[in-house]
Specification:
- This protein is mostly helical.
- The chain has 2 helices and no strands.
Length: 52
């Protein structure tokens, strides 16, 4: 699986952007990750150590 990171401008409507991305061919899901929110579910998932 690959991830796409989009940096938005201050005041951008993230929900509208998320809905637009979800309509693109090949997009299975989209999640909003807030770098300023350390409790973000995706951020926690990406920081978990990988099993060898």
């Amino acid at each position: 699986m690959k991830y796409l990171k989009i940096n938005t401008e201050e005041g951008a409507d993230i929900e509208i952007l998320k809905n637009a991305v979800l309509q693109l061919k090949g997009v299975a899901s989209a999640e909003i990750v807030d770098d300023e929110n350390p409790e973000s579910e995706l951020k926690k998932l990406l920081q978990k150590p990988k099993n060898s």
